[in-house]
């Protein structure tokens, strides 16, 4: 962005070599604890996310989904950061965090059911600690900050121990231009709450390039709110994991809010209704394609001795998973609109019961 922006923290070169930059030194200990099995798990989930992206795109093109929001190119930022969390941490996603969802145990069919119109949510956010997808830009930043304020109040009242849980909110560069994002950052700092803002800077807000959105990096912008900012190579899964783990430990233990900017690139369209060739050049795409996080991690695993047979088996497993997801999506029952009233309040509410009964009888009046 400019000469004052921090260099991204990086461990893996685009060729897959483990060559930590000087700025990565504070996080080297966590990086060195990652085993080959750990990295192979990251690779499995990253490639599965992309394979399910392909399957979901096909479903949308065939009229089975209303819309699809792919995460091509952002798999390392999502998978690495998700595995850095503790089981008690709560995630507030936007609408593109498919890799985070998989890492938190969400059934991909539940995501597709939302975009197919079969359900209003799809999973239990209390059980999974993975909140619902948010279509409204930056709204989840306010939700996350409010939830983190609740954690702080519970700790002050002695209902929760300190250092046990924190919040991470995923937000894009485009959403950072929304007023809700600034309001969330202000409240997070003012009340010193345990929330990490994870900004996936994928270079575009639909068709608006990041240079038009901000004059400085998002890591530097955080400093203006009194919040420490970190900048990572978002296509390096090791950087994503180690820095998120380090920062979340600080946030969880009373250091207050923080922000990580993951510098990455949206290799696919904004959504299935977008044509990125209208606003970005082939040369730009080719440059970022060479930085694709999946070939980078694969090359590193090859240096560690993983053979093509293992990669081939992972591809087979991913295809099997994608076929199963497709079949279950196509077998989903018809939506039940009256269910929208079931989770408005934690306990039964007379107004909701009345409205649900009215809608049920109204729909029944159309039956032959």
Instruction: Specify the CATH architecture of the largest domain.
Output: 3-Layer(aba) Sandwich
Straight-line distance between termini: 63 Å
CATH topology of the largest domain: Rossmann fold
Strand order of the largest sheet: 1-2-3-7-6
The Rg value, from CA coordinates, equals 21 Å
Beta-strand content: 5-15%
| Average pLDDT rating | 96
Helix % is: 40-55%
Largest sheet: 5 strands, parallel
Number of helical elements: 15
Just give the CATH class of the largest domain. Answer: Alpha Beta
Give the class from helix and strand content and strand pairing. alpha/beta
What is the number of beta strands?
7
Shape: globular
pLDDT < 50 runs, ≥5 residues = none
Number of domains: 2
- What is the element string, with H for helices and E for strands? HHHEHHHHEHEEEHHEHEHHHH
Characterization of this structure:
This protein is α/β, with parallel strands linked by helices. It folds into two domains: 22-335, Thiamin diphosphate (ThDP)-binding fold, Pyr/PP domains (Rossmann fold, 3-Layer(aba) Sandwich), CATH 3.40.50.970; 337-368. It has 15 helices and seven strands. The chain has helices spanning 28-32, 36-61, 75-83, 98-103, 108-116, 125-128, 139-156, 179-190, 210-213, 218-223, 237-255, 282-289, 293-303, 308-330, 350-364, and strands at 90-92, 167-172, 195-201, 204-205, 208-209, 229-233, 258-263. The strands form two sheets. Strands 1-2-3-7-6 form a five-stranded parallel β-sheet, with helices on both faces. Strands 4-5 form a two-stranded antiparallel ribbon. Helix 2 packs parallel to helix 14 (308-330). The protein is globular, with a radius of gyration of 21 Å. The mean pLDDT is 96.
């Amino acid at each position: 962005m400019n000469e004052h922006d921090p260099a991204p923290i990086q461990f893996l070169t685009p060729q897959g070599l483990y060559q930590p930059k000087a700025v990565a030194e504070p996080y080297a200990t966590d990086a060195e604890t990652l085993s080959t099995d750990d990295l192979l798990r990251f690779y499995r989930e990253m490639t599965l996310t992309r394979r399910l992206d392909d399957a979901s795109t096909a479903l949308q093109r065939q009229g089975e989904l209303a819309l699809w929001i792919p995460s091509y190119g952002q798999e390392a930022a999502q998978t690495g950061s998700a595995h850095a969390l503790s089981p008690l941490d709560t995630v507030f996603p936007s609408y593109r965090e498919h890799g985070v969802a998989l890492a938190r145990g969400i059934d991909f069919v539940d995501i597709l059911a939302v975009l197919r119109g079969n359900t209003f949510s799809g999973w239990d956010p209390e059980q999974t600690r993975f909140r619902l997808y948010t279509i409204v830009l930056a709204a989840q930043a306010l939700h996350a900050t409010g939830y983190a304020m609740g954690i702080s109040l519970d700790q002050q009242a002695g209902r929760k121990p300190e250092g046990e849980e924190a919040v991470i909110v995923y937000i894009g560069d485009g959403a950072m231009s929304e007023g809700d994002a600034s309001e969330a950052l202000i409240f997070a700092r003012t009340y010193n709450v345990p929330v990490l803002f994870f900004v996936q800077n994928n270079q575009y807000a639909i068709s608006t390039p990041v240079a038009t959105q901000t004059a400085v990096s998002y890591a530097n912008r955080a400093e203006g709110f009194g919040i420490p900012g970190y900048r990572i190579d978002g296509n390096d899964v090791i950087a994503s994991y180690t820095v998120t783990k380090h920062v979340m430990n600080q946030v969880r233990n009373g250091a207050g809010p923080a922000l990580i900017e993951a510098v990455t690139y949206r290799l696919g369209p904004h959504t299935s209704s977008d044509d990125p060739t209208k606003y970005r050049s082939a040369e730009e795409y080719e440059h970022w394609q060479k930085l694709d996080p999946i070939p980078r991690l694969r090359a590193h695993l090859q240096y560690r001795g993983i053979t093509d047979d293992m990669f081939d088996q992972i591809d087979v497993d991913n295809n099997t998973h994608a076929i199963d997801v497709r079949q279950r999506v196509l077998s989903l029952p018809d939506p039940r609109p009256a269910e929208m009233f079931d989770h408005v309040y934690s306990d039964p509410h007379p107004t909701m019961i009345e409205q649900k009964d009215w809608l049920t009888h109204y729909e029944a009046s159309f039956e032959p």
